[in-house]
Write a structure and sequence with these properties.
The chain has helices at about 1-25, 50-55, 120-125, and strands at about 30, 35-45, 45-50, 70, 75-80, 95-100, 105, 110, 115-120, 145, 155-160. It is built from three helices and eleven strands, in the order αβββαββββββαββ. It has one domain (about 25-160).
Length: about 160
């Protein structure tokens, strides 16, 4: 009985000490060409942004991905069903980024800490750019910045709000 009590106390101490350390997620503000784009964090050994923030940047409400995004397993794709890339619905909300053509944004979407994450390297590639990881000593108050020129072959592009 005494061994069981000691084991239970050790387990409780571990949960009280280790769980807050593990669950502590340092978010950094993420900007795209100087405009607020969402939040980013270092998760599972890579820089990523919550899928909910990515959806909001497209003008969504963060709850649903429709009509422009589709998530199947770890694949995030764009879709432009029944319309050309130049045609926009008048009642569709406008974000700082827009889908320019149908295609794959990421094959590496993952879940961690109760959220779904999109790697920033894949987001940059969807714009036709590249992502360089920030230094390891990034302070929690420092922001991450993505800067891209408008690329004609990018799956994603900027709306008027996203251009400089």
């Amino acid at each position: 009985m005494k061994k069981l009590t000691i084991l239970a106390l050790w387990a409780l101490a571990f949960v009280l000490i280790a769980a807050p350390i593990y669950m502590n997620q340092d978010f950094h503000n993420l900007t795209l060409n100087g405009k607020p784009f969402g939040r980013a964090a270092f998760v599972n050994g890579q820089w990523a942004m919550p899928l909910q923030d990515f959806s909001r940047a497209l003008g969504g409400n963060g709850v649903t991905l429709e009509p422009t995004l589709k998530l199947r397993g770890n694949q995030l794709t764009t879709s432009i069903e029944g319309e050309s890339a130049d045609h926009k619905h008048k009642d569709m909300p406008m974000g700082i980024i827009a889908v320019r053509k149908a295609g794959g944004i990421s094959n590496n979407v993952f879940s961690a800490n109760g959220q779904t994450w999109v790697p920033l390297a894949d987001v940059a590639r969807a714009f036709g750019g590249t992502f360089t990881a920030p230094p390891a000593n990034l302070r929690p108050t420092d922001a991450l910045t993505l800067n891209f020129a408008q690329k004609p072959d990018g799956i994603l592009g900027f709306t008027g709000a996203g251009q400089q």
